[in-house]
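Example record used in the benchmark description.
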Amino acid sequence: MLTVKLQMMFLFKKLVTPFLLPPGIIILLLAIVGLASLTRRHWRIGILNLLIATGLYSLSIVPVASYLTHGLEKEFSFPPQIEGDVIVLLGGGSIQKVPDLTGTGTPSMLTMGRIVTTARLYNRTKLPIIVTGGKWFADDISEAALAARFLVDLGVPESAIIKEDKARDTAENTRFTADICREKGFSRPIVLTSAFHLKRAMILFNRQNLEATPLPAYFLSTGDPTTNWPCLLPEASSLYLSSLALHEYLGIWYYRLVG
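Model output (structure tokens):
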């Protein structure tokens, strides 16, 4: 009897908690306002609130986030033979001014996975590494400097690292890295970044007349449909993944549009 009671409490907690935290509570409030408006015949306000609630809910559940992410990742895989003459590590954000084990500031979670895979790849290939990523404010530490510090902590010799510390976005990452490649005589860069980011990055690298090889640092989706009921509950992590994916799709469309 106690086991059944504990199981019911666990299920209740799992069902209710997502609607006490964002984005669930926002979805719930929008839905309540929408339904209340409809009962008072305020049709436009009611429908608008319900549409926003539905859209936010859709972007906040695992199946939609997984579908959007997999659409970006599905064409990439780990090649059986990794060939190139330099590893290019693309930055993905940083957390400034926080304490760290060996300094101040730390790469974002997205960047951290890229750094770890870069260190693993270096141990296999011993290829030089270009780390690219600048900073937004004068007193910040560049993403390249942060990534380089962590790579050294993971055993990569500082002499193997080339820092490109001026780029502020993927387009500048690509352009400034291509300049370094031409200056140093590299022609076959291995472009290493998150799998969801590779498609946009490769569009830009392919315009630099370099024989670039895409290499995913990690994947965020398996592509397999999820069918259990908890995956239909809204959560901030799924909304975050959906936002990352939509940002990539917008970037891809923009670069294709401007040519």
